[in-house]
Amino acid sequence: MGEYKAEIIAVGTELLLGQIANTNAQWLSQKLANQGISVYFHGVVGDNLERVKTAFQLASDRSDLIIVTGGLGPTDDDMTREAFQAITNNHLKEDEQTIDKIRGYFAKTKRKMTPNNRKQALVFENSLVLQNSTGMAPGMIVDFNGKKWVFLPGVPREMKTITTEHVIPYLKRTFLLTSVIESRMLRFIGIGESQLEHELKPLIDVQQNPTIAPLASEGEVAIRLTAKAESKEKANELIDKTELSVLEQVGNYFYGYDSTSIHECVFELLKSKKLTLAAAESLTGGGFSNEIVSLSGVSQVYMGSVVCYSVYSKQHLLGISPELIEVHGTISEQCAEAMAKNVCSKLNSSIGISFTGVAGPDDSEGKSAGTVFISVHGHGHKGEMNTEAFHFQGDRDTIRTRAIKKGFELLYRLLKDL
């Protein structure tokens, strides 16, 4: 068999209500990718027999390997077995090893075993039963109309154990898997998603292996490169070549790989260049400081921040002159520069950064919501001062988040050039 189309279906109303996250699908996708199996679809369906049947029928029509998590418990709303039985007429039987385990559990705990507990021991005839070493309900693998169905408990610990102990070895044996899928994330800042996609359009238009997928997040973008090959080394060689082509086009905006964050990069640059940083925060109210102090070891480079939200605190904590505020206001380039310069002096740091602006929803000092000034002062490095004005869109939290991300971007560019 060539390309295997895999699909993962999670059964459980609690997932649709947002009461728990569907981490099972993420984990399973990663494990399947490691074996060279592409997951084409993720689905979540509530505890409703007709809807589960519909989801199963759709999966059967379009996928080669269907993995179902959840709905194998003892209660009436656990209806994975019933739905599959309804569309296949596959009969159920009681698995002796499982029922013995259930009886033993209730005897050991001196609890009464209710009739519905027997339901967890029901398995499909002619299925491969996957014993559950960490729970009650076993997993199952069923062949039907040329498709492989894998049924797993929804409890993450049980699902992971059965997958690791039974499912992955079975897939290796049955499908004779000879390839792997590798992914690498390239992270960029200072360029929008649409511009990034435009710059890379010639590469994206001819993509095959690896594939190129732009991804956007708050204040930055990423490119996911995914390659399929007979080995991890070969897949990474393919990714390396495509990465070089990508960076030839947009390398000026690149800052890191995979889970690396921009504030981690700033921290590492400060550390490697033996520089210190301090912040003066009005608009961001300590949010910038919160980001950077989340990193272990940051005390060696971060002197602290002054949260100066009011005019009084700007004057009395940072020493901003009343005359400057009277003439230019607190939401101005001049105030931002004075804040960045003065916090350097007050906290004896190499570099100072400041944030002042209007988070909204109302205007302030004649400035519209979203107006932000960020200033970076390189004390001791030719007295460099870089101040930029921005107009961010969104609600209060979005404006503050974007300002913080932009502040880290300005610091990153300054530090790279020092």
Total beta strand runs: 17
Could you tell me the strand content as a percent range? 25-35%
Strand order, largest beta sheet: 2-1-3-8-7-6
Structural domain tally: 3
Main pleated sheet: 6 strands, mixed
- Structural class designation: alpha/beta
Please give the count of helices.
15
Report the CATH C-level class of the largest domain.
Answer: Alpha Beta
Per CATH, the superfamily of the largest domain is: MoaB/Mog-like domain
Return the average pLDDT rounded to an integer.
93
Give me the CATH architecture of the largest domain, please. 3-Layer(aba) Sandwich
User: Which stretches of 5+ consecutive residues score pLDDT under 50?
Assistant: none
Oligomer: single chain
Shape: elongated
Domain MoaB/Mog: 7-174
Pfam families: CinA, CinA_KH, MoCF_biosynth
Protein name: Putative competence-damage inducible protein
Organism: Aquibacillus rhizosphaerae
Indicate the topology:
Elements: E1 5-11, H1 13-16, H2 23-34, E2 38-45, H3 49-62, E3 65-69, H4 80-88, E4 92-94, H5 96-108, E5 122-124, E6 128-130, E7 139-144, E8 147-152, H6 156-175, E9 180-188, H7 193-199, H8 201-205, E10 211-217, E11 220-229, H9 232-250, E12 254-257, H10 262-272, E13 277-281, H11 287-292, E14 302-307, H12 311-317, H13 322-328, H14 333-347, E15 351-357, E16 371-378, E17 384-391, H15 396-417
Parallel strand pairs: 1-2, 1-3, 3-8, 13-14, 13-15
Antiparallel strand pairs: 4-5, 6-7, 7-8, 9-11, 9-12, 10-11, 15-16, 16-17
Helix pairs in contact: 2-6, 3-4, 10-15
